[in-house]
Amino acid sequence: MAVTTLTIDGTPVSARDDQTILDVAREHGIHIPTLCHVPGLSEVGACRLCLVEIAGSPKLQPACLTPATEGLDVTTRSERLDGYRRQIVELLLAERNHVCSVCVANTRCDLQDLAVAMELHHVRYEHQAPAFALDASHDRFVLDHNRCILCTRCVRVCDEIEGAHTWDVMARGGESRIVADMNQPWGASASCTSCGKCVRVCPTGALFEKGTTAGSPRKDRSFLTYLKTARERKLWIR
Amino acid sequence: MRKPRVATVWLGGCSGCHMSLLDMDERLLDLASSIDLVFSPLMDVKAFPEDVDVTLVEGAIANEDHVETIRRVRARTQTLVALGDCAVTGNVTALRNPLGGAAPVLSLVYGTAFDRPDASHIVPRLLDRVLMLRALVRVDLYLPGCPPSADAIHHALTALAAGRAPDLRDRATLG
Questions:
Q1: Residues of A in contact with B172 (CB under 8 A)
Q2: Over A20-59, what HEC string results?
Q3: What's the pLDDT at B86?
Q4: Out of B95, B97, B174, closest to residue A115 by CB
Q5: Which residues have CB under 8 Å from A87's CB, separation 6+?
Q6: pLDDT of B80-128, one tens digit each?
Q7: What's the pLDDT tens digit per position in A95-127?
Q8: Torsion of CA A146, A147, A148, A149, to 10 degrees
Q9: Is the pLDDT assigned to residue A221 strictly greater than 90?
Q10: Does A116 contact chain B (CB < 8 Å)?
């Protein structure tokens, strides 16, 4: 396996040729914020939070999808990047009804964590307040579109790990939403195995277990890397 | 030196932010000697005074009276603080926004079985859309939280009273 060398934030680092900029940065303790990325699932570059600057390129590139190739000169923090990342979080908070104080994921939410890390104390944009429904037709789980950020973690984990592919995204723009089995009530889905993986990877309060309250523990996502390592390397290690 | 003139205002909120303010416990005594509280729902003053240095505003703008109040408060205040998530984002007070305007919300809450009396001459008319403070007036400081902690309010108030910019890192978050 070839080894490549590149520069991240002025520090020379080495990488395997199958790694992305995000992989290498994390391996070297360089923090790049993400929302749609989950270790163990494919990358989609949906949230754009991991955008980085690459010397010589006018375009910003998502670190999660950009291979760590020889000689790259990557910048992960700058006034421009910080500004865009802040704007992304603000737009996500304004787009649907993210009412942290009454959300089941309050204090255990990846989106809220980002707002805290950015010291985001208010949103510059008008809250859209769309009228979205809540699907509580499943015996054990609830889908609340009001808290969904369309990261597609649930879609990917259901397809790639569980193999059921119950979830998809329908419609466009502000109408986009997660649907089960070609837009059926979740409880009526014939493909859903009720495994709960989608609930565990959901970064916000969009998917939650019935009975979840403000004091419930944080979602544990370590099962994903465990399953992936087991499958790909036949190693059953935690 | 003149003590800083401080006011607190209660718009469309649950009063939880004011409860959190009172939750400063004995620190209130020190505060009381270093500021001049000129207007608050906690005291018996009817009209919002002129020349206020710092005003903490709890709640979102939900009715016509709130619109009038916040404009008056802004005009008479040096530093206006959005106190808590309702003032900052609309929060719980704005939960009704996805349901449509004032009329459908009233029908949803009170039903349509009988005609509601027209009480607009005694009760302020509801706005069709609940607004965060910054939708109508300039806000100088955001103090989020539902409610913001007593520590956060104490820190902000003492800093502002001393003419310093508060440092809200690790003290205030949405939710």
A1: 121
A2: EHHHHHHHCCCCCCCCCCCCCCCCCCCCCCCEEEECCCCC
A3: 97
A4: B174
A5: none
A6: 999 999 999 999 999 999 999 999 999 999 888 878 788 878 899 999 9
A7: 999 999 999 999 999 999 999 999 999 999 999
A8: 120
A9: no
A10: yes
pLDDT at A216 over 80: no
Long-range CB pairs of A59-62 (<8 Å, 24+ gap) are: A60/A84, A61/A21
pTM of the model: 0.92
Token pair in block for residue B36: 């001049």
Distance from C-alpha of A152 to C-alpha of A191, rounded to nearest angstrom: 18
Single-letter amino acid, residue B76: R
Taking alpha carbons only, the member of A66, A82, A59, A55 closest to residue A4 is A66
Asked whether B92 and B146 are in contact (CB, 8 A), the reply is yes
What is the per-residue pLDDT across A24-59, written as a single tens digit (0 to 9) for each? 999 999 999 999 999 999 999 999 999 999 999 999
Taking an 8 Å cut-off on Cβ atoms, the answer to whether A121 and B169 are in contact is: no
B chain contacts of residue A91, beta-carbon cutoff 8 Å: none
Q: Which residue of B has its CA nearest to A95?
A: B98
B-chain residues near A131 (CB < 8 A)? 98-100
Q: Give the pLDDT score at A234.
A: 84
A119 and B169 within 8 Å at the Cβ level: the answer is: yes
**3-class SS letters over chain A:** CCEEEEEECCEEEEEECCCEHHHHHHHCCCCCCCCCCCCCCCCCCCCCCCEEEECCCCCCEECCCCECCCCCEEECCCHHHHHHHHHHHHHHHHHCCCCHHHCCCCCCCHHHHHHHHCCCCCCCCCCCCCCCCEECCCCCEEEEHHHCCCCCHHHHHHHHHHCCCCEEEECCHHHCEEEECCCECHHHCCCCCCCCHHHHHCCCCCEEECCCCCCCCCCCCHHHHHHHHHHHHCCCCC
What's chain A's average pLDDT?
Answer: 94
Bridge partners of residue B113, in order along the sequence: none
Q: Is the CB of residue A168 less than 8 Å from the CB of residue A155?
A: yes
Cβ contact, residue pair B99, A131, below 8 Å: yes
For the stretch B123-175, pLDDT in tens is: 999 999 999 999 999 999 999 999 999 999 999 999 998 889 999 887 888 88
Chain B interface test: which of A101, A104, A113 (most B C-beta within 10 Å): A101
